[in-house]
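Researcher: Batch entry, complex prediction.
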Amino acid sequence: QKEVEQDPGPLSVPEGAIVSLNCTYSNSAFQYFMWYRQYSRKGPELLMYTYSSGNKEDGRFTAQVDKSSKYISLFIRDSQPSDSATYLCAIRQGGSEKLVFGKGTKLTVNP
Amino acid sequence: SQTIHQWPATLVQPVGSPLSLECTVEGTSNPNLYWYRQAAGRGLQLLFYSVGIGQISSEVPQNLSASRPQDRQFILSSKKLLLSDSGFYLCAWSGVLREAFFGQGTRLTVV
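Model: Structure tokens for the complex:
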């Protein structure tokens, strides 16, 4: 079983839609959860960082963690064409120096 | 503020030629430094990480090597490139929470 599973999509939505991106993980020792956005031919940029179950909101973005289900989500409200990118989840085990990344979900927001 | 520089942006090299990719970080001291490779459909693969000068941990056995000659400098090298070394190479540094901040990447094509 892979450590992190992420549906690669592609996902195509109309402008203004609510987008839900998800990852599941297998190891309950993972404690820290991140979401990255990567535009084509660019390096990933950190969007959200959380380490507890529940929701964390930043503008149009909400990160949700359910440790009991080993499931993390990123919601994008009022999606914009500029949100078109690949979104990667990343998780880290406590005490580890390394992040484990999902393969990324490619999102297209159509105007 | 912290910045990370990675060069070159693109590189085309013949099979069997050497490789040297350089990454430098500004605005922080003693960062953890990472080299990742991103291949189509395979996500981000951690190649090497370093917690200090001269300290290199290798994650994947292959014909690549890494060195950290200075606190904020990380170099990825190969003596003889293979076709399978083609990919998008990303350098990153991590903050106190071990979140990764990426450079803009080097797209390497081995021909």
